Structure to design on (410 residues):
């Protein structure tokens, strides 16, 4: 729009200079040696106009195109001016003051600017639409660029989640070529982690086996002490040996659990694990005398390693069988994204104030029954390793009820 207006002003300035050159001023008259070459000045309302006005009664000359209009030059300074007509017309005029024989004369040359305004508005609207479309295309292109540019990272994120869930142990070599160095570094890190875990497990196992030999030798010493009549000293040594053996067994079992969680975690049927464990316990001397009642959903899949689940259920059911008088009740169900397993017995139960102490490592609430007190501690560790919950309440049957909450398999 500014460029178009600049061209118009240059054209008007040229016509104004030509008009001044054609003027012959003899107050009180103004005459012209010739007409301007543009025929629109001679056509009524032709679109091009000029007006010359002096400070005397007859000092007014106009182009035929003005017809009966007079340009209001009073109060206008020299330069470019925009004037509105009687209706929707819009005019642009270039005004200049000249002096002839000590008389000031105002010269104005202009044209109808309505068409230019209309064309400019149409052009602006078209440019706006074009720029809007261009902006939309750029936004769409930018979104596609970001979307497809981040796809390799999304595949990498999904693969890392599979590793965390135990569905794979390594990233595929050509999973994301765009970030291949990162894939290689992650695989190298995973390899080092597995090697470190395996070495730690082996060292724990070697340490445990290494300690068992001197512990066995100490038990031989206690036997000799009893033969010599030193039973008190022998009992003290036996207590220390038993406590050390408990700690060794506990940490050995934990080291195996933590190793499995990283690379061997899988989905397994909770229902089958319960049925299998009950079938085994029924063959024991204590289990044969008990009534086992199982209320299980058809198939509940939990996100726990099979061996860990069997150990967990075995520990809880063995504890229930140890204290039950006549029966053990097992219920399994699904709630939201978790499986709920309830195991209750009709035994003597325990005081409510002691419920919070169950499952603490090496803590035995009743020394009258055989055991090390580590079984429920191991069960707590297993449940915690897989993001579940383990709680103890008084059962409606009168004994202890254990509630195990485990995440369902995806």
């Amino acid at each position: 729009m500014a460029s178009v207006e600049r061209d118009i002003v240059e054209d008007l300035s040229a016509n104004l200079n030509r008009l001044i050159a054609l003027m012959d001023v003899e107050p009180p008259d103004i005459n012209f040696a010739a007409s301007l070459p543009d025929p629109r000045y001679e056509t009524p309302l032709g679109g091009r106009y000029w007006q010359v006005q002096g400070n005397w009664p007859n000092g007014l000359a106009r182009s035929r195109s003005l017809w009966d209009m007079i340009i209001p030059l009073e109060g206008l300074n020299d330069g470019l001016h925009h004037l509105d007509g009687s209706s929707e017309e819009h005019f642009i005029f270039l005004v200049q003051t000249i002096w002839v024989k000590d008389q000031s004369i105002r010269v104005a040359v202009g044209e109808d600017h309505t068409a230019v305004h209309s064309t400019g508005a149409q052009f602006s609207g078209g440019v706006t639409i074009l720029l809007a479309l261009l902006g939309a295309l750029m936004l769409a292109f930018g979104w596609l660029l970001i979307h497809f540019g981040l796809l390799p990272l999304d595949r990498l994120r999904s693969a890392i989640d599979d590793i965390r869930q135990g569905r794979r142990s390594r990233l595929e070599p050509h999973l994301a070529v765009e970030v291949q160095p990162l894939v290689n570094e992650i695989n190298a890190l995973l390899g080092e982690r597995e090697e470190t875990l395996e070495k730690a497990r082996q060292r724990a196992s070697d340490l445990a086996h290494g300690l068992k030999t001197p512990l066995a030798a100490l038990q031989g010493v206690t036997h000799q002490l009893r033969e010599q009549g030193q039973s008190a000293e022998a009992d003290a040594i036996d207590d220390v040996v038993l406590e050390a053996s408990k700690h060794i067994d506990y940490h050995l079992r934990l080291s195996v659990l933590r190793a499995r969680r990283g690379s061997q975690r899988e989905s397994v049927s909770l229902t089958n694990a319960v049925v299998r464990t009950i079938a085994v316990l029924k063959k024991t001397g204590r289990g044969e005398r008990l009534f086992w009642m199982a209320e299980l959903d058809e198939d509940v899949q939990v996100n726990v390693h099979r061996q860990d689940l069997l150990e967990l259920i075995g520990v809880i059911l063995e504890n229930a069988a140890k204290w039950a008088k006549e029966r053990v009740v097992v219920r399994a169900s699904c709630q939201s994204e978790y499986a709920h397993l309830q195991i209750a017995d009709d035994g003597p139960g325990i005081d409510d104030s002691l419920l919070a102490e169950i499952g603490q490592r090496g803590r035995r609430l009743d020394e009258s029954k055989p055991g090390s007190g580590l079984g429920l501690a191991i069960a707590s560790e297993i449940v915690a390793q897989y993001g579940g919950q383990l709680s103890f309440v008084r059962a409606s049957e009168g004994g202890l009820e254990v509630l195990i909450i485990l995440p369902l398999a995806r």
Summary: Helices lie at 2-22, 114-165, 180-227, 231-263, 270-281, 285-288, 306-323, 375-385. Residues 364-372 have pLDDT under 50 and may be disordered. Residues 20 and 107 are 8 Å apart (CA to CA).
